[in-house]
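Supplementary Text 2. Reproducibility record for the structural model of the 341-residue chain.

All settings were left at their defaults, and a single model was retained for analysis rather than an ensemble. We include the record here because the model underlies the residue-level annotations in Supplementary Table 4.
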Amino acid sequence: MPPDTPDSVLHEVHRNGVPEEPGDGWSGSTLAIVGLGLIGASIALAIRARHMVKEIIGFDRSSEVVARAVRAGIIDSGSGCAAEAASRADLVVIAVPVSGIPGVAREISGVLKRDAVVTDVGSTKGGIVQALEAILLRHGRDYVDYIGGHPMAGSEKAGLSAAEPGLFAGAPYVLTPTARTSPRAVEAGYSLARAVGAIPVELDAERHDRVVACISHLPYIVAVALAETAMEQGEGDRMIAELASSGFRDTTRVASSCPGMSADFCLANRDALLQAIKHFRDRLDDLARDIARGSATFVEKLGKIKDFRDELAVLKGWDSRETGDKPRGETSERRSTAAGR
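Retained model, structure tokens:
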């Protein structure tokens, strides 16, 4: 595996033997997407825009969603079940909630083409990668044509209607290969990431889960706690709702995410998230003590954190892309929340 991405700036990782152009070697292939929500449908739209494959097949538990996706030209054809879609595909993307990923893998494992590659887009990776490698390992092989994936972009919006082809543009796309991952699966992971406009980055699955707990799952919990605090205090003072403005809007936006899917990834990443919550609680306690004591170093601490956040905003390009840092008059629906929901 190549060395870790430098902590100071995100660089694309290049592997020897992996084509650097999106979709190289996949132009005559069939893609199956299981799950046509925000992420699955956005992948389909991005792949279609790049003409990466010859056909896109889609399946969703809602037949109405499948029909709408066909009518909208998001997919070429729909399928009645995940196994049927996967049986015709060279590349299968499992884009369902985290808790449902192993079940889909079990459903399709017996019908896959000999050299078909499977990937997922779940926002937790440790348990998922371990489970899918066991499920998809074929008899007589010491490798598996599966690679874990997580595009680090999303929205508090959900469903087919929220999908957009540029959702992943410029965002990190984490890939979590292991010693068992076949070269073909690695190539497919890189090609898919580049085809949707993202930057492929390799991480160990466990490290991915620790990082995502801090910068994606914890922010969701903090937003929920802040919104709950306002809700409870607002029961006795209607002015809380009347005066809520952009600061409250921006810091609580992800609390509007789908409750079921959010609970799903929080529970799947329970251990890492609880550690992140503990660390965050400790920082809140420190700030509370500073405020209570009128600490002389309080302003200095706030300035240090401001500098960190300002530097991060410049590094990530948030000044021009994100609502909270946007020049006046500029609008965009894109949200790089790193939740990958």
